[in-house]
Amino acid sequence: MSDALEKLRADDDELVCLAVRRWAEKKYRLVSLYAELFATGMKNKWDKRVYLDLYAGPGFGKIPGTSTVLKGSPMLALTVTHPFDKYIFCEENPQNMEALQIRAKRIAPDADIEYVLGDCHEQIDHILSLIPKHTPGNRVLSLCFVDPFDFGIKFDSLRKLSSLLMDFLVLLAIGMDANRNYDRYVEGESTKIDEALGNTEWRTRWAQPGVLRKEFRRFLATEFARSMESLRYLPQQLHQMKEVRSDEKNLPLYHLALFSRNELAYKFWRDVLKYGTDQESFF
């Protein structure tokens, strides 16, 4: 097995695992690369680097029907070359949380970790209180990974977190959810997209003459970037996001997008996208 796969894979410890598909390996490789660059590149520039995972899961994922176990985002962040100064893991499922705590203790026993049990959006004020205060003598920069199962992001939560110095790596599950549920979200009474984008004006823009339904997925990714720009994040174009497709039918599943207020973060991201398919050469 190559070093790239070795870094992502784990031995089955018989604790709870998240069921993941094979293409999750692509996502975890990109997350691992960016966390590594962020943690190392910011080590001597900030007094504290904080890693926040809003949908932490149990720490391991398993591909059904195989023996392949993958390290989830919390485990990958815990094992970067220069670990973060503080970690905050939020998870809604108690069984997942228990497995996550056991694995984190085994893999990184000395890490400073805060665990938050519950829905990340309901717990967002508590999460904010756990992030060290930024002062002239204690400069704090955070990286927040947002990895929901569907397009169920609550933009108001990101708005609150953005009051701090924080970069976001966001999975936009627009192929897996929003595109499949188009009629309910656009023509029904669902407010899910409104909440994910933090506005209702998107409906007016989508209703413009000549807009094709097949472009809805790309439209939502662009609209989310527009919403993040309203929080003073640098503009992100669609081509700067990583589109992940299924292995089976090559169907679009989601976009993975970075949002930062500093151009250096986008340099890191461009390196990740350039070398993301070849982790060995990257390191």
Structure description:
The chain is α/β, with parallel strands linked by helices and 283 residues long. The protein has a single domain, classed as Vaccinia Virus protein VP39 (Rossmann fold). Helices cover 39% and strands 19% of the residues. It has helices at 3-8, 24-41, 73-78, 94-107, 124-130, 155-161, 174-178, 182-187, 192-197, 202-206, 216-229, 263-275, 279-282, and strands at residues 9-10, 18-19, 48-53, 60-62, 69-71, 86-91, 113-117, 140-146, 166-172, 242-245, 252-259. The chain has a seven-stranded mixed β-sheet, with helices on both faces. Helix 2 packs across helix 12 (263-275). The two termini are 16 Å apart. Mean pLDDT is 91; it is low at 279-283.
User: How many individual helices?
Assistant: 13
Tally the structural domains. Answer: 1
Average residue pLDDT: 91
CATH superfamily: Vaccinia Virus protein VP39
CATH topology: Rossmann fold
Q: Would you tell me the structural class of the helices and strands?
A: alpha/beta
Shape: globular
Show unreliable segments: 279-283
Regarding CATH, which class? Alpha Beta
Strand order in the sheet with the most strands: 7-6-3-8-9-11-10
Largest sheet: 7 strands, mixed
What's the order of the H and E elements? HEEHEEEHEHEHEHEHHHHHEEHH
Calculate the terminal CA-CA distance, rounded to whole Å.
Answer: 16 Å
Tell me the CATH architecture: 3-Layer(aba) Sandwich
Q: What is the rounded Rg?
A: 18 Å
The proportion of residues in beta strands is 15-25%
Number of strands: 11
Percent in helix: 25-40%
